[in-house]
Every structure is written in C-alpha cells, then in structure tokens.
# Entry
Amino acid sequence: GAGVSQSPSNKVTEKGKDVELRCDPISGHTALYWYRQSLGQGLEFLIYFQGNSAPDKSGLPSDRFSAERTGGSVSTLTIQRTQQEDSAVYLCASSPAPGGGYGYTFGSGTRLTVV
Amino acid sequence: QQQVKQSPQSLIVQKGGISIINCAYENTAFDYFPWYQQFPGKGPALLIAIRPDVSEKKEGRFTISFNKSAKQFSLHIMDSQPGDSATYFCAAGKVAAGNKLTFGGGTRVLVKP
# Structure
C-alpha cells in the first residue's frame, strides 16, 4: 500500500486480557519499528526488525510484550495480561533501510485503552 | 545517556512569527537528528533531518540549526501559519545501530491567526 497501515485503530480491552496489534509496512521497506506514545508524552521505542536478523527487543517494557514479523512484512505486537498502564497509542513505522539516515514512515497508530 | 530533552512543552505564536523549539542530547554517538510533525489522530511525519557534519539545514520555512559542541539542535519555523499548529518532536539516533530513535517529549505549537 501507499502508507503504513495499522489495525485496529482503536481497541478497548479489559484488564488481564491479551491483545494483538497489527502493522502492514510499506512494501519493500526492510526495517520495521514499534513505538509507544502515552498521553501527552514522547515516543518510547519498543522493538525493531530488520530483514531476517534477530529483532532488537531492548525497549520492550516487560515479558508480557512480544512481537513477530512474518515473511519480512506484516508485524504483530502482542500484549498479554494487559494492565491499565499499557493504555497508550502504539505506533508502527517502516523504513527503506536501517542505515543511511532514512526517515521513518509512521502509521496512524492503534489507541489501546485498558479498563 | 539516551535522553533527548525538548523545550518548551508548548508555544503560542502569532501568524507570521517565528517558532523556535530546542533540543539537547547526551549521547555523543548520535549521528542523525530528525524532526517530526504530528497532527491529532495521526502518526508523526518526518519534517526535516540533519547529520552532524553540517551546522544548518533549511527546507522551505523550516530550518534546523545544529551545535555539535553544545550537543544541541533546534527547529525554526519561519513565517508561521495556522496550518503549522501541531506537536513537534525532535529525535536522535545512530544510523549504524539501525537508526533506532530516541524522541524528545514534544512541543505543542499553536499559531494564532
């Protein structure tokens, strides 16, 4: 597609439930990133995928968070046993290549509300 | 050492005025400094970026000034327009490390007509 697509755009879930957030990057972009944006805050890095390399998971806040990227394209971020502090906008971005200073293209995000 | 500090948190400017946003970083290994613009309900969009080998970069009404020795960089929006009203984020990254970005806290800019 023309841009980075994220689904769902909004998700309300009960505390303790698992959620899956999906990201479709721009076709041909080899690098994919997940960030979290809490209300009125900056963006917090979560995880980075590049091609077939092992992902950089250094930003994942706890073992309740995991992500995978299938076939070098679509990525899913899974949050298990959701907590109220997980409420945020989860943003996915893709880039043509990890080096060279290429800018990211972000999706519009998934707004997650844990009640 | 990974922090990027951004100021001010919010800014009100009259149409035609200059908006100035400042950022400071700590990690001297950073070598890529982009600015992103975000409108409500949308993801951030890349506005302009600079590498540390230049002190200034201009694209239209947007200019980045970069001071390597002070570990500071700033965004100037000249002739600010109501359509520039948005939240602006600075960021810093290391290209060789996958360009994973550390973001500042954001500045909400309101341009009054």
Observations:
- Residues 5-106 of chain A form a domain with the Immunoglobulin-like fold (CATH 2.60.40.10).
